[in-house]
Amino acid sequence: MTGMVWTLMGLMKGWAGWLERAHAEAQGGCDGPLCGFVGERVANPAGRFPYAGECNRLPLFPRTAMRILLTSLLLTLALPVCGQSKPENNANRSAKGSTADALMDEWVSSWNRDEAAYIENGLAPDAVVLLGNGAPLKGKAAAGKDFVRGQMPLVSNLTVKAADSGMSSDLAYQTGSYTQRIDKPAGGGQPYTQTGRYTFVWRKLPGSVFRLKSVLMAADPAAAH
């Protein structure tokens, strides 16, 4: 395996452990900071997240399922880069993003400009989005509907701080921390600032264009509103 694959393995292992701790905390009730981050729009006693699911929905996505999802995602991403070690040539990268950091900067700028159609177009056909410990959104249609068009009207002022990033001939990723404004909390609560962690992974499709393959985002427990 290439260095990129080993790096992603480390990132996924860290995410699995972090989500497991968040899930264990949420099992105690809806006061858990990650309780049902993605799901049906229902009343949330704590009013913390724009999408809040009932706590009795948590067993649908237990700790074992988290590990299976992350492991499957890693294997899906890793296969195309196994055995490849040559650095990517600028001429073969996407027109607007020659590095992983540039891809992320472009995505954040487009998100903050409410360019939903542009971001949807940039999703891979088999995109996977995982927000908090909610059920994963699988496929371009689901990710576009529930993540892009579902979340974009509810939040603003997204900023990211990269902790690590990398790029190979077929894969690019960035991981770090984020801050965003929750403008429309569930239950009509007051707007607040949310912080959390993220990992974005892009895969190159035929035609030398990078598309967003996976999004992992989860609010920090300490940042619960």
Automatic annotation (TrEMBL):
InterPro entries reported in the protein's UniProt record: DUF4440, NTF2-like_dom_sf
Question: Locate the DUF4440 domain: which residues?
Answer: 103-207
Under Pfam families, the record lists: DUF4440
The entry's protein name is DUF4440 domain-containing protein
Annotated source species? uncultured Cytophagales bacterium
Q: What is the lineage of its organism?
A: Bacteria, Pseudomonadati, Bacteroidota, Sphingobacteriia, Sphingobacteriales
